[in-house]
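Archive transcription. Copying these from loose printouts into the bound notebook so they stop getting lost. Printout 1 of 2:
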Amino acid sequence: MDVNVYIASLVQYGLNKKLVQPCDTIYVTNGLLEAMKLDSYDPAKPEAMSLEDILQGLLEDAVERGVCDDDITSRDLFDTKLMGILTPMPREVHQTFSEMYATSPETATDWYYNFSQDTDYIRRYRIQKDVLWKTATEYGNLDVTINLSKPEKDPKAIAAAKLAPQFGYPKCMLCAENEGYAGRMNHPARQNLRTIPVTIAGEGWHLQYSPYVYYNEHCIVFNHEHVPMVINKAAFSKLLDFVSLFPHYFVGSNADLPIVGGSILSHEHFQGGHYCFPMERAAVEREIVFAGFEDVKAGIVKWPMSVIRLRCGKKARLVELADKILLSWRGYTDEDAFIFAETEGVPHNTITPIARRRGTDYELDLVLRNNITTEEHPLGVYHPHAELHHIKKENIGLIEVMGLAVLPARLKQELAGVEKAILAGEELTGELAKHADWVEELKKQHTFTKENTAAILKVETGKVFAKVLEHAGVYQRNEKGARAFDKFVNYVNEEG
């Protein structure tokens, strides 16, 4: 198809999605011509195509003429540049969001989420490729996803990134300076990113969505300043402040220590969204009382990880109690339970906090974390152990803590290979060999057929994730673990 048709179709797409106005048509067309390195334009009739098809057509033309290199990273940089030409200025986005927010916070986020997809910052067509299912466990239905929307870098792109000059701008992928940034081989393009400024606990922050959308309206809330992650009293205030502004959203923070924290600890940020996680649905297993805070409803949640749930109508009271629990946990050692506040000067105890609204009340889940390592468990004692690494080896961050397994993309192909081998009666070799012990155990429990094998593997993968969370819990869910948990609660009360 003629490149002029693709250009006309992209402009029409911008008009349809109200990214541009009719008076912008000539300006936007010329911007696209410049990006495509075309000197002339033969006005063409736009055709009804998906955004993916339009961009694919433009990319193929650009690659063919040497305007864009033929690798995934270069293509992503280039089509983001094209979409940036259609994306309104930040001031326009801020104004629209503010107008929508005056109607309701939910109206504002509904608009902004759709806008982030329309600009292709969230690539709808990639998100649709993700594999999602639920697995029933004693803790309720756990969410499982094999996320395919984050593109794999090919060898050429990796090599180019290594050779590329190292820059200190933006300082990381969460910095405010990413808005409108052209990107490079080792940093994604963000010309189509528009963030929403918000004030949390008197500080300047920004709201945006994750381009990979692990769950509905997966948002990221980040500090305007490039300051490191820290869990403290102020962090609890900020989380509760955010759900005051957006009561239909939950928000949580990764822990602030390696292993138990997230992948970006250098920049203070939270994750939230319009989604009810399995942990939120989990009931309080037994109620507890914190001395001096009898007005705060507290309990231990029926969950594979060790979770204290606090609920109260007054934010300040939740913040005070959460801070007391945190400070107690930071300095807490119980050798019998293999919990050490520090070893050789390295701190181990921290908390993963999650905030939400329950009607007029505020609710705060405090997940106790510990990142100690041993020779037997070099990646962490409270981390998925080696026998589970064939399914999940990565750190258990905020999203997994709440009951959504974000599994590596490799598993889609590997599980298909395991299914094929089981049905053919073949040994698991090569990249599938790591699943062999697991499959042998499954054969003792199930009779595999052509009709049920795929479904069984999905269910059992979800059960492995439940074990992953159990491994990450500092207190085991048995009588001994319950006594040790109560010992800590008593310690908090004694400290007061």
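Printout 2 of 2:
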Amino acid sequence: MKKYLTLSLLITISLFSISQTNHVVNTVANSFNPSNLTIAVGDTVTWINTGGMHNVNGNQSTFANNPASFGNSLGSGWTYSHVFTITGTYDYQCDPHAGMGMVGSVLVQALLDTALILHGIIDFDLASGGATGKAIHLFASKNISDLSVYGIGVANNGGGTDGQEYTFPSMSVTQGDHILLARDTNEMSTYFDVCFSSFNVVLQATNSISQNGNDAIELFENGSIIETFGDPNVDGTGEPWEYKDSWAYKDNSGSVVFGTNNWLMGSVDCTDGSVTTLSSNCPYPLCVVAPPPPPVNTSNITFQVDMSQVVDNFNTPELNGTFNGWCGNCNPMTDSNGDEIWQVSLDLNHGDTIEYKFSADNWAIQETNDPNDFCTNGDPIYTNRVLVVPQNDTTLLDVCWGSCTICGLPPSNIEDQYLFSNVRIYPNPANGKLNIKFRKNIDEIIIQDLFGRYVSKINIDSNSYSLDVSGFSTNVYILSYVMGGILYNEKFVVLH
């Protein structure tokens, strides 16, 4: 059932001031440790100079592609913190020691686990006037009991954030709902024509939706920015993300990237002179492609590590990985019975491919893994464990620190012990050959994109296959197969 509301303008000015997590980087000799971080928008990074004359230089004058500048002055004994409010990749260096490898990077990602996400930015050219063609398309990835905790801000002309300018009404929406926040709902209904029924919720925002095709859009939750389209500090005119008299649509095939999301762009002015979206030179993608699938379910996974052979002093082991941004001590482990086997349990999306490793005392020590071991990603530099999250709640083996097997297990029994992994896919990302090795023979594999669109079906009747992905576009793909009567889905990346 469509929920159709007309609302008076609700304006809430709310400056972004709340950070979710603090990440610590130490100077160690002439290096940053860790040198590469993946964090969420709104997180804080704190650099601590443990000795020597150093600085943090992430200024755009040095790194032109940084979304914003940050850094401090050269000195000793300092502590410097910065809150990252714009998604993207930030490079930085210590000026006097950059040539010695004292460089680092921070990847700032959107909070993708939020219940409400941006899905489309609209600036259609309508016969009734340019103002009436403005709208924002959102998607509910989970049930939301009170939509009013969310809001929208429009950062006009590269002048930086203006804070939250529109607050959603107090109402509930359902997982899978497409929400249209429009300047003029009547004009949008006419322009979308038969496609207008694709929106489950339609809200009228009047002049709070004021984007002009060159303006960044910010999504807020409880006053904090959780997702950004465009760069609030840059006028989008002439930028790859300009959407004047056009649209931007979140789609894995898109070439414009913010955070971890790809955006498909309609060409500038492509709706000029059109009566409906389907008659334009750039039909809105929701009208011609299926909506994104609902989020996957989660499984409770218990990770175990045997610390009995660790010679370094430690207090508390921890689990770090792609699922927590390698945050250090976010997921500490416990040993309730004192048997030196430490555990921690997490809810993870089944079917996801994650990388992880064990460390202790906020990265004071970390395990060193062999890139040739079957449970690792094969990367000789950043050698991490790999797991395809199973569909059922699972307790993983109590593996030895720095090993793929339990302590004392002979190599001949490795494959029998690694029962929680059905497949190894490497290298991942790939740009030529993608090697696939299954635990058992598989009759066929199916390749799809993230929206379920068919790419290829291959009969293999084997436990291994080498897939040529040189002709695939840069994208994330789903490899589907059946083992033991259960359908499994694994992700892999093609990156050219």
